[in-house]
């Protein structure tokens, strides 16, 4: 009986060998330290820059400040977690190589692939965590940030005015300059009902049941084919504008702030607006599905250069090239999303090919490790 207990204990001990527990402990500690350090620097800089805007002359409660920046963790996790894992992996592997511990482990009969298993396990876990973040946490976090600060709308107002178009179900078009999250309305609106009727509104509040126009001017075409002002209203319900589908789908939330499930539902929406933005929705879906793979790719990318023993190892060069490579990949992925949204290339190829190429290249290097 005692022998069986010892065997069971031995099996449990052998399930995670000592070297794996050591590597996991070092990697997790380094990952948490680097992740927390980078985010702490961001919080200090952001608070110092926007302190006057955020407080507005009054002290912000600590609990609100904590929730506000906790939401930023989810917002920037898609890039912050992979780059932290990249730096932590390099730090652990180069430290083991410098102290000759990697050589000692290999001399004990452990291959480099076995030594890489803890890093791959953490990479897979971070990939899963980023997928959950994109689906569950980030949409709620972005909604909370926008509801509290309204930074996105303020930035739009400071930029050069744009003209956005909404195609409606009846074939007419709605033009506006910007959205207002505070009033749930679109501003500087022009509705071209047909060739003979044009409506101009200072703002149009999008409500699920009825649309409300404020400071409304109605232009009609006269006998001389000129558009003339016929009616003016301070407030006017606009039930003739068929935009019910958009009002029910939270039109003010951009595609980048929605979950994958919600984006899939928008693909099936009968709204003309979502049908014309089909490529933009698909680009965001593929980006949110494939971007979490950056965590695993970051681990695969540094395994070979950091684990290879050299008499003189230039750690600074490894860090520099790895960080520059990661920044380049992020820039390429952002450009790929824009290319997919513009329909230059199908979204699945625009976003999927860079990820597939990186995974194939670095996965092949690990296979021949």
Low-confidence stretches are 1-13, 151-159
Total strand segments: 7
- The helix content is 55-70%
* Oligomer description: single chain
Strand content: 5-15%
Shape: elongated
Give the rounded overall mean pLDDT.
Answer: 84
Number of domains: 2
Query: What is the SS-derived class?
Result: alpha+beta
**How far is the first residue's CA from the last residue's CA?**
44 Å
Radius of gyration: 27 Å
Q: Biggest sheet, in brief?
A: 7 strands, antiparallel
- Secondary-structure element pattern, one letter each: HHHHHHEEEEEEEHHHHHHH
Number of helices: 13
What descriptive keywords fit this protein?
64% helix; 2 domains; 369 residues; seven-stranded antiparallel beta sheet; alpha+beta; 14% strand
Write the layout of secondary structure elements.
Elements: H1 2-15, H2 18-55, H3 62-98, H4 101-107, H5 112-149, H6 151-158, E1 164-167, E2 173-176, E3 178-180, E4 185-194, E5 197-205, E6 212-221, E7 227-237, H7 244-248, H8 260-267, H9 272-276, H10 278-290, H11 293-307, H12 315-341, H13 347-367
Antiparallel strand pairs: 1-2, 2-4, 3-4, 4-5, 5-6, 6-7
Helix pairs in contact: 2-3, 2-5, 3-5, 3-11, 3-12, 5-11, 8-10, 10-12, 10-13, 11-12, 11-13, 12-13
């Amino acid at each position: 009986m005692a022998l069986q207990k010892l065997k069971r204990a031995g099996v449990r001990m052998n399930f995670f060998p000592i070297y794996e527990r050591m590597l996991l402990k070092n990697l997790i500690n380094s990952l948490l330290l680097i992740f927390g350090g980078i985010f702490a620097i961001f919080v200090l800089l952001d608070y110092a820059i926007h302190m006057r805007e955020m407080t507005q002359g009054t002290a912000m409660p600590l609990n609100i400040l904590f929730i506000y920046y906790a939401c930023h963790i989810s917002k920037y996790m898609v890039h912050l977690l992979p780059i932290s894992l990249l730096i932590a992996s390099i730090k652990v592997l180069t430290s083991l190589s410098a102290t000759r511990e990697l050589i000692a482990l290999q001399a004990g009969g452990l291959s480099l692939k076995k030594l890489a298993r803890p890093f791959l396990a953490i990479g897979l876990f971070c990939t899963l965590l980023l997928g959950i973040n994109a689906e569950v946490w980030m949409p709620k976090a972005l909604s909370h940030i926008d509801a509290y600060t309204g930074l996105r709308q303020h930035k739009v107002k400071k930029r050069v005015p744009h003209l956005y178009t909404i195609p409606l179900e009846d074939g007419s078009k709605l033009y506006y300059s910007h959205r207002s999250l505070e009033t749930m309305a679109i501003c500087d609106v022009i509705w071209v009902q047909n060739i003979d009727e044009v409506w101009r509104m200072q703002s149009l509040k999008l409500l699920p049941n009825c649309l409300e126009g404020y400071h409304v001017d109605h232009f009609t075409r006269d006998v001389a084919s000129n558009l003339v002002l016929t009616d003016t209203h301070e407030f006017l319900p606009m039930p003739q504008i068929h935009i019910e589908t958009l009002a029910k789908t939270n039109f003010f939330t951009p595609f980048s702030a929605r979950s994958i499930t919600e984006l899939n539902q928008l693909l099936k929406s009968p709204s003309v607006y979502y049908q014309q933005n089909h490529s933009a929705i698909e680009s965001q879906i593929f980006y949110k599905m494939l971007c979490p793979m950056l965590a695993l790719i970051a681990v695969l990318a540094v395994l070979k250069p950091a684990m290879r023993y050299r008499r003189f190892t230039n750690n600074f060069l490894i860090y520099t090239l790895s960080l520059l490579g990661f920044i380049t990949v992020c820039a390429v992925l952002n450009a790929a999303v824009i290319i997919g949204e513009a329909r230059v290339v199908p979204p699945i190829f625009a976003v999927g090919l860079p990820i597939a190429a990186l995974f194939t290249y670095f996965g092949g290097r690990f296979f021949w490790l």
